[in-house]
Amino acid sequence: MKTIKIVNTASQLPEKIVSNDDLSKIMDTSDEWISSRTGIKNRHIAVEETTASLAAGVIKKLLLQSQVDPAEIGFIIVATMSPDSTAPAAAAKAEQLAGLNGIAAFDLNAACSGFAFAFTTASGLVNSLDCKYGIVIGSETLSKLVDWQDRRTAVLFGDGAGGVLVQAVDEDERLLASDLKTLAGDADYLTAGFLPRQGWGQKKLGSPYFQMDGHAVYPLRHGKFPGRSATLLPRQS
């Protein structure tokens, strides 16, 4: 069994920057209110860019930095909850935009933990596909899922992409452990991206914009789960 190592990293950001002061002009908020609660001062927002084009920028940078033959790339995984379309996948479109073809490319949606899920998936693919290299990217244009009048959610999100080129190696295991769990019972505390339903009397499922129960989400972010005795603690080195 082969393991994977990270060969290179790269990122791609949209050009437009939106500051807290910019947000204060369109909603009831302020730089002090946002920065004191989140630490955020600015965020990049995609205007011309897309989830796929940001991912493609990462692919191009990784290949340029590493001087790897694209023919040796076995797969491209894009972790995203904000694809440009349900089909084609952002990974497939990014492959095309990067000038590549014939590579296994697919999206993986696990929201905030998407990159962790994708990287763990990549560790298995290097063996099942018997390939030398793979690319794992997290790419989001969450600004298109934001209600820009809702300060509970709009201040939290921005756009961008980051990724890694991984190589299959015959060495001691480099991915020491992965512990993937989904707290399905808490799934409705933060939702986004419901598609409209039309025809045959189907009802709309929910809002396409972020909807958040902040009082429920905050303790989850800090490892405290309502109704559970367990608390996540940092693993000691």
Automatic annotation (TrEMBL):
Gene3D superfamilies: 3.40.47.10. The keyword Lipid biosynthesis applies. Residues 106-182 form the Beta-ketoacyl-[acyl-carrier-protein] synthase III N-terminal domain. Keywords: Fatty acid biosynthesis, Fatty acid metabolism, Lipid biosynthesis, Lipid metabolism, Multifunctional enzyme. It comes from the Bacteria. Pathway: Lipid metabolism. Pfam families: ACP_syn_III (PF08545). Belongs to the thiolase-like superfamily. FabH family. This is Beta-ketoacyl-[acyl-carrier-protein] synthase III N-terminal domain-containing protein.
